[in-house]
Write a structure and sequence with these properties.
Length: 399
């Protein structure tokens, strides 16, 4: 609906511009015809021109005004050339002292003003100097330089009008850009709100469906193979739907531009995670068993996040403890194990207490991540202190 309204507004603005342009053309043509109707019969009163040449000479003085809207510099050049030719070619009628008709002077001044408003500054300077010299050369006495002062004032006024129009146009463009930015921000905020609602409602409940479908054969007695297959199909369908929801969330959170953040981490960056943990002072031992196999983006991200969260929990809740991270690759699964001992003497081991907390982060967050990709995760305190996290994830998954 917003796009339709914007198109309607754009159409109205375009129609308005076309209407104004049409009336400008009509006005210029009408004024030109009026000036021509004045110039033709009055030309014999100012210059000694034979009757057959009257329409031609009058046209040379008036018709350049037709270019005032599209090519004012060209129109001025034609009018100035006529202003140079007419005084040299035709004698003045006794009693008339000016080299041109009044309508010719009006046309030249109008074109000078139009040049000052529309053309480049270098062209304005050429037109200004040339017009002043033309009047100084042909207008008798000191009146020529008086006309030069008046022409200079006209050029300055035209430049002021030009800069005023430009500044108002830029202000209008800035206001339009600000309005578009406000509209764009409102759309992004609404999309982010929808994304949060979808995540809080749909994604959470879809994850619960996956967990219930996969755990049902173990929780319910007398589950035969057909029912087990039905639960597996339900879980796979739920994971596929959850994947679609995540794609939709990505679209809703996107502003239509290329993301400026780095891609989501995967198993290729696990080495960097281990090194950063060691640089932070963690006594970390790592082990990889088997040959790493290609995994989906979802599984790769899940392995990385489980390791990241487990190492962070160990650093927070058992500071100074020795930590072991182990990855075991098998043909169909990858097992992630992270264990830590009790905190160093003088430090408080809060692992057990922290493991009981919920809220979608920590242990419960890792369990949810593992279940979404079709895996399982268990986390529990170790006898004698410390904590253990163990996740078994499928190598290939549709999630």
């Amino acid at each position: 609906m917003g796009e339709v309204k914007e198109l309607a507004k754009s159409g109205v603005r375009t129609a308005g511009r076309l209407g104004r342009g049409r009336w400008r053309v009509i006005t210029v043509v009408t004024v030109t015809l009026i000036l021509y109707a004045i110039a033709w019969p009055t030309l014999p009163l100012t210059h000694d021109v034979s009757p057959p040449l009257l329409p031609l000479i009058s046209g040379m003085a008036v018709f350049p005004f037709l270019l005032v809207l599209v090519r004012p510099a060209l129109g001025w050049a034609v009018a100035a050339a006529a202003g140079l030719v007419i005084p040299i070619t035709f004698d003045l009628v006794p009693g008339y002292d000016y080299p041109w008709q009044v309508v010719h002077i009006m046309v030249m001044l109008a074109l000078v003003f139009a040049v000052a408003i529309r053309e480049e500054i270098r062209i304005v300077l050429v037109v200004w100097v040339s017009t002043v010299l033309l009047f100084a050369a042909f207008v008798p006495g000191s009146d020529g330089w008086g006309w030069g002062i008046g022409i200079s004032a006209l050029v300055v006024f035209g430049l002021l009008v030009r800069w005023l129009v430009i500044s108002r146009r830029q202000l209008a463009q800035q206001e339009e850009a600000s309005e578009l930015e406000r509209a764009r921000r409102a759309i992004l905020e609404e999309k982010a709100h929808i994304a949060r609602d979808l995540h809080d409602i749909v994604a959470h409940h879809m994850s619960m469906i996956v967990v219930q479908a996969q755990s049902a054969p173990y929780r319910l007695p007398d589950v035969n193979d057909d029912v087990r297959a039905e639960f597996d199909a339900l879980g796979a369908t739920a994971r596929e739907a959850l994947n679609e929801v995540r794609t939709l969330l990505g679209v809703l959170r996107s502003d239509g531009q290329l993301p400026e953040h780095e891609p989501q981490p995967d198993i290729d960056r696990i080495g960097e995670l281990f090194e950063s943990s060691r640089r932070a002072g963690m006594a970390l031992e790592t082990e990889t068993v088997g040959v790493p196999a290609p995994v989906s983006d979802g599984v790769g991200l899940t392995v990385y996040r489980i390791l990241q969260e487990s190492l962070a929990n160990a650093a927070r809740h058992a500071p100074g403890a020795r930590v072991s991270a182990r990855l075991q690759w098998e043909p169909a699964t990858v097992t992630v194990e992270v264990t830590n001992g009790p905190a160093s003497p003088g430090q408080v081991d809060t692992t057990v207490r922290q493991s009981d907390r919920s809220g979608g982060n920590g242990i419960l967050g890792m369990v949810e991540r593992a279940s979404v990709v079709g895996g399982q995760l268990v986390a529990h305190p170790r006898p004698g202190g410390g904590f253990e996290v163990r996740a078994v994830l499928p190598v290939l998954t549709g999630a």
